[in-house]
């Protein structure tokens, strides 16, 4: 079965410092992995996705994530945090395969706080 | 703006009442999804439409829940005889890419509170 585990429920950083949001996945085959961001009172927005091409994936707003099969990880990073990055971030894996067309499996989320 | 409008934004109801939510994608999308998000959790898949056809239902979707997409554009989600455990954010999403199920555009959701 596919699942994701977000290792931190809350991360707090200072503005201008690096961001690391950790995610480990479990999948019986090569997964597609995503990071979504949810700002208060706004819809979930796709940050980036990995689909078996390059292992280092660049997304919007300066975020990137690296797929590491040996570690079953897909951590999200950003070199320098901005106040506008404060939000909840979700690591997501698809069920994929030939059957399901709809199932994204979301982690429980990591709330990122950015201090001035 | 994600191009997905949900109405209402908030709904407060008493236990046992019926509620209906609506999802309006701005443009035509073949695939439409409903998710539920409870406090401290990520969204959980409820059901999925390909045009008018409801192709998948999660085990989370009890008999009290029904979803429709009569014309393949907007969709409604009805909960009958609401229970306090139904309190959650209900999210609608669309997939503009017919080749994959990868990139979803989510609405802002309807927050349901059952008293």
Kindly describe this structure.
The complex is a heterodimer of chains A (116) and B (115). With 116 residues, chain A is an all-beta fold. Helix content of chain A is 0%, strand content 51%. Chain A has no helices and twelve strands. In chain A, the strands form three sheets. In chain A, strands 2, 5, 6, 10, 11 and 12 form a six-stranded mixed beta sheet that branches. In chain A, strands 3-9-8-7 form a four-stranded antiparallel beta sheet, with no helix packed on it. In chain A, strand 8 and strand 9 form a beta hairpin. Chain A is globular and about 40 Å long. The model of chain A has no long low-confidence stretch (mean pLDDT 89). With 115 residues, chain B is mostly beta strands. Chain B is built from no helices and eleven strands. In chain B, the strands form two sheets. In chain B, strands 2, 4, 5, 6, 9, 10 and 11 form a seven-stranded mixed beta sheet that branches. In chain B, strands 1-3-8-7 form a four-stranded antiparallel beta sheet, with no helix packed on it. In chain B, strand 5 (44-50) and strand 6 (53-57) form a beta hairpin. At the A-B interface, strand 6, strand 10 and strand 11 of A face strand 5 and strand 10 of B.
């Amino acid at each position: 079965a596919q699942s994701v585990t977000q290792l931190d429920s809350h991360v707090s950083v200072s503005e201008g410092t690096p961001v690391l949001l950790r995610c480990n996945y479990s999948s019986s085959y090569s997964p597609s992995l995503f990071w979504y961001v949810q700002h208060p009172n706004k819809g979930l927005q796709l940050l980036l996705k990995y689909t078996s091409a390059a292992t280092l994936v660049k997304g919007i707003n300066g975020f990137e994530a690296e797929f590491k099969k040996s570690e079953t990880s897909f951590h999200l990073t950003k070199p320098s945090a901005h106040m506008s990055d404060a939000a909840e971030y979700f690591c997501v894996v698809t069920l994929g395969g030939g059957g399901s067309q709809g199932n994204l499996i979301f982690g429980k989320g990591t709330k990122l706080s950015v201090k001035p | 703006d994600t191009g997905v409008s949900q109405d209402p934004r908030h709904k407060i109801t008493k236990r046992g009442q019926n509620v209906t939510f609506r999802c309006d994608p701005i443009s035509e999308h073949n695939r439409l999804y409903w998710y539920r998000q409870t406090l401290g959790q990520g969204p959980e898949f409820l059901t999925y439409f390909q045009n008018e056809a409801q192709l998948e239902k999660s085990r989370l979707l009890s008999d009290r829940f029904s979803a429709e997409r009569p014309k393949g554009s907007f969709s409604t989600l009805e909960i009958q005889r609401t229970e306090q455990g139904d309190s959650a954010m209900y999210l609608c999403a669309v997939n503009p890419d017919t080749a994959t199920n990868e990139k979803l555009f989510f609405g802002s959701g309807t927050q349901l509170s059952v008293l």
